[in-house]
Write a structure and sequence with these properties.
205 residues
C-alpha cells in the first residue's frame, strides 16, 4: 500500500489516479472538454519521464519540455472552451516572465534548441495561466483550477532556477507543487461535473 510520500515521488501513479477519478465520476460518458485535461495528464506523464531519466542528455530535457508544452496547450484549450483570455492579466504575466527569461534564464542556456524550447514553453505557460484566471466556471471550479495551474507554473519556475541559475534552495518543492497542481485540477473538474448534474442528482453537503 503506497504512502503519501511514494505517491508524490512516482511520476506515473498520481496522474493515473487523477485520470481514473475523472473517468469514474463522469456520468453518461466524459464530456469533450474533459478529454483535454486527461490528455494534459498523459502528456505530463511522458514529459516527467523524460525529465526524470535524462542521464545528462540535453535532448531528453528538450523532449520533456515539448511534452509539457502539449500539456499546457491542452489546459489552454480547456480554458478557452470554458472562459476567456483576460488581456490585462495576460500582459502582466507575459511581461514578467519575458523579463525573467531574458534577464536571468537566457544567460544560463548555451544551446540554441534548448533556448527556443524554454522560451516557447514559457510563453504557452503564461497563456494557460492567464486563461485559467479567465475561466467562467463556478467559484470552486474556477479557483481550484487557477490554483492548480499556478502551482504548476510555480513548479516550472523552480525547475528553471535550478537548471539555469544554479539556485537549488527550493528544489525540494518541485515535485510536491507539480503533483499538487494535478490534485487541484482534478478537484476543479469534480466540482464542474457536480454543478452540471440535475439538481436532484447533486450531492448534498
Amino acid at each position: 500500500m503506497p504512502n503519501i510520500v511514494s505517491i508524490f515521488n512516482n511520476c506515473f501513479l498520481l496522474p493515473v489516479i487523477c485520470i481514473v477519478i475523472l473517468l469514474f465520476f463522469s456520468d453518461k460518458g466524459i464530456k469533450k472538454d474533459r478529454w483535454f485535461i486527461i490528455l494534459a495528464f498523459l502528456f505530463s506523464i511522458v514529459g516527467d519521464w523524460f525529465l526524470s531519466h535524462r542521464h545528462g542528455l540535453s535532448s531528453r530535457f528538450v523532449s520533456g519540455i515539448v511534452w509539457f508544452f502539449f500539456a499546457h496547450l491542452s489546459y489552454l484549450i480547456f480554458c478557452l472552451k470554458n472562459g476567456r483570455i483576460p488581456k490585462r492579466f495576460l500582459q502582466i504575466i507575459l511581461i514578467a516572465y519575458t523579463l525573467f527569461f531574458f534577464i536571468f534564464l537566457r544567460q544560463g542556456i548555451s544551446e540554441p534548441i534548448l533556448l527556443i524550447a524554454v522560451f516557447v514553453y514559457t510563453v504557452v505557460s503564461c497563456f494557460s495561466l492567464a486563461t485559467s484566471f479567465g475561466l467562467t466556471l463556478s467559484f470552486a471550479s474556477h479557483w481550484f483550477f487557477f490554483a492548480g495551474i499556478t502551482s504548476l507554473v510555480f513548479s516550472d519556475t523552480i525547475i528553471a532556477c535550478r537548471e539555469f541559475l544554479d539556485f537549488n534552495q527550493y528544489a525540494f518543492l518541485i515535485r510536491p507543487t507539480y503533483h499538487f497542481s494535478q490534485i487541484l485540477i482534478t478537484v476543479a473538474l469534480l466540482f464542474k461535473t457536480q454543478n452540471e448534474q440535475p439538481p436532484h442528482k447533486r450531492l448534498k453537503y
